[in-house]
Amino acid sequence: MTHASAPGKIILFGEHAVVYGRPALAVPVTQVHADVDVSDSPRPGIWIEAPDIYLRAELNTLSSDHPIASVIHNFLFLLRVSRFPNLAIKIISTIPVASGLGSGAAVTVALTRALAAHLNYAMADEEVNAFTYEIEKLHHGTPSGIDNTVVNYARPVYFVKGQPIETFHVGKPFTIVIADTGISAPTNESVGDVRRLWMNDRSRWETVFDKIGEISFTARRAIEAGKPELLGELMNENHALLKTLTVSSPELDKLVEAAQQAGALGAKMSGGGRGGNMIALVESEHAETVSRTLKEAGARNTIRTQIL
Ligand code: PMV
Predict the structure, then answer these.
(1) Distant-in-sequence, close-in-space partners of 274: CB < 8 Å, separation ≥ 6
(2) Burial of 122 (0-12, 13-18, 19+ CB in 10 A)
(3) How far is the CA of 83 from the centre of ligand 1 (A)?
(4) Confidence class of residue 139 from pLDDT cuts 50, 70 and 90?
(5) Any residues with CB less than 8 A from the CB of 163 and at least 6 apart, and which?
């Protein structure tokens, strides 16, 4: 049996503007992960079991655009195998789906790595990353590539679309609380709405993207310099800019305000928006209070994570 795992991810700064070439920062969230086991099967076919999504099926009974089937079909195509091997694949993920924690990319990375290892196909990280990006494009339209990059390298990433991958050093660990609105909102809709805004008034929105890009740039410097306390104000500013882009929501704004009032150093929505998650920067002794307040304000779930 061969096993592979990939973490979740969260965007700290720069979502949406990253689609227009500005930098974004994202970090792995190791508290949640996707795990895949691949073993030889005595039964003919490729049998997939993913209890989290109530899936138990043979590959050929799934439509070819099924998210998991498409990974396996594309992987076998990459290998140019003439006869499909008989396999049993088990997929378990603790990453909430469609909430900005990179669940799709993590399943693809873990599944690709487990298949590659089991079938003795040497695959460098860069190749897994490029493959995962192609799969992301099949399901998410025009993704920037930030999800697959962070999940694949499991390191903090300073991401600029189309540029070589830059991981960066965290000068001093810091704590964030991630809170889930419980509302699943498709990223391609908010990305599409931002595109329509931009098409109608490019110069206005380019200025907003520039401001967000500067925030990401400044935030990276603060993190590297071991001054995470400076990130709080940058989060608040980034959230305000995302609000003007219309990608926040009353539920996200409520959680952001609740975190700020409960003693967080700063807070913002994270990812595509309209639902999904928000993040709050906290001193570790306040993490508990902020988490509790967020739940009282409607969060379905909170995750406390240390960025190292
Ligand atoms: O919702 P998430 O975490 O998958 O992030 C989407 C981030 C966007 O910048 C809105 C889109 C993208 O592809 O980068």
Answers:
(1) 183, 185, 189, 190, 247, 248, 249, 252
(2) exposed
(3) 37
(4) confident
(5) none
CA-based nearest residue to 13, from 240, 191, 264: 240
* End-to-end CA gap in the chain: 31
How many beta carbons lie within 10 A of that of residue 178, not counting itself?
27
Strand partners, 9: 28
**231 torsion bin: left (phi>0), alpha (psi -120 to 50), beta (else):** alpha
Tokens at 18, concatenated: 């990253």
List residues near ligand 1 (CB under 6 A): 11, 15-16, 18-19, 100, 143-144, 146-147, 187, 191, 271-272, 276
Phi and psi, residue 229, nearest 5°: -60, -25
Out of 9, 11, 138, give the residue to mutate to test ligand 1, the one with the largest number of ligand atoms within 8 Å of its CB: 11
pLDDT single digits (tens) 86-128: 999 999 999 988 778 999 999 999 999 999 999 999 999 999 9
Orientation angle between helical segments 250-261 and 287-296, nearest 10 degrees: 140
For ligand 1, atom 5, the nearest C-alpha belongs to 271
Q: Where in the sequence numbering do the catalytic residues fall?
A: 147
How many angstroms separate the Cα of 85 from the Cα of each of 33, 40, 203? 27, 8, 54
Q: Which helix (H) or strand (E) is 70 found in, with range? A: helix 67-79
**Share above pLDDT 90 across residues of the chain, in percent, rounded to a whole number:** 92
